Amino acid sequence: MAKPKTKQKKDIQKSGNKKKFPENENLLVKPLTELKSSLHQYKILGEQEVPDDINVYQYFFPNSERDCEYRHRRSILDEYHADSYLRKSIYYGYFQLFFMFSCYFFVCHPLTRFFDQGYFMQSQLISWVSQDLLQVFALWPQMVVYLHVGYILQIVKLPSKIEKILQFIWSILSFYLFSYYIPFTTYKNWVNTSRAFSAICNIAMTMKFHSYMVENRKFRKEDPKYKPKYKDFLYFVCAPAFIFQKQFPRNEKIEWKFFLIKSIFSLMGCIGIYFLTNDWLLPILETAEKTDFVTLLLELIEICFYFNLAVFYLIFENIMQGIAELTRFADREFYRDWWNTTNYIDFFTKNNRPLYNFSLKYIKTPIMQKFKISHKLGNYIILCFMAIMHELVIVVVSQTFTPFVLIIFILQLPLIGLLQKFEGGDWGNIIFWFLYLLAVPLVVAIYIKSNQILALFDTYN
Fold this sequence. Notes:
Membrane topology: Multi-pass membrane protein
InterPro entries: MBOAT_fam, Oat_ACAT_DAG_ARE
Largest sheet: none
Active site: 390
Helix content: 55-70%
Structural class: mainly alpha
Keywords: Acyltransferase, Endoplasmic reticulum, Membrane, Transferase, Transmembrane, Transmembrane helix
Order of helices and strands: HHHHHHHHHHHHHHHHHHH
Radius of gyration: 24 Å
Pfam families: MBOAT
Shape: globular
Distance between the termini: 69 Å
């Protein structure tokens, strides 16, 4: 009897198929308490305990649109709250040890430089990175003002015949928000860090604009008397969310101690990235023209790995957590356990949940419903969309279009099918990370050899 239950659970995990249950039961739309009761009733888990609230929907319906809805959830690596997964895990001490070692490294390294060379940090690099900083921060209120166009279009009542014109308007405006700042950053001659920040902010605001327009159109169709509220719009603009809802899960109050800790960790992350850039990356760039491609690739593997970890921890576990705390945004699942992934699709669905949820709701699901394509092809479309988003950032930073990232993404698509036999096992995880740790430095090495990255540091040199 145990094997059929196991098989049934695996079928549900992979496809979210509701036919496994009686036809009058739609578990996908049930609230959490009723869902748990149904799981026990049908004995899907056998004698196992039903997962915690954070995992119930993703455990049984990982590819469903219900998974895009916001709920009260902790971050996996939340080291502050006693009820977090990390604090309850037996590996919490290991995480603390790794964190302390990182702090030790970033404290001792500048001290060694101070005793040997008489300074902690090079002021020249700091001034170069912080150049145009005030102008970059001024972009944020400009983008917020621009997003009010979407709100105005929603509160103005238009005849039904003009609905297609309205759809065309918001499509053009969504593209305009990003396309405007590409020549703008070129005209201002901003450094690459300022360009990257402006590109990421513009992509985020464009997705917010799109979601707000689409969701409000749905609400108007469901209820002709629906009127968008300004406070809901303003909260959506400030919250770390890309999908608009009438109501978001919110905490009762701001935990200022938690916000202070995340602010300190964010500062430490920026300092760590500075040391990685100054002590490891710049020396490699200085000798890149004289270094052969294979040697350059091997030198970049380690630095790219540390950069990935530092940027991930800085953005998803500190900056976004801090913004969420200020806005009392309760859904802190900005990522999942991407380190346990065994294939490319699983990785890109876990390492950036806001971007994936947006692409799932507004790209994959509509295309699948309209063209009747498979989930596999839909996942390929999501991967291509994410590749395009990364390529757009690189275009703004480098001021040229050399689609190396997009090409590498496309070349990796055949590997998804080849790695399916290893999916879910130890070898799948090992093979994936072996290929991933080569892919990122490979892209960087190609850009370096094509003089794209070297040109970015001309101002500093």
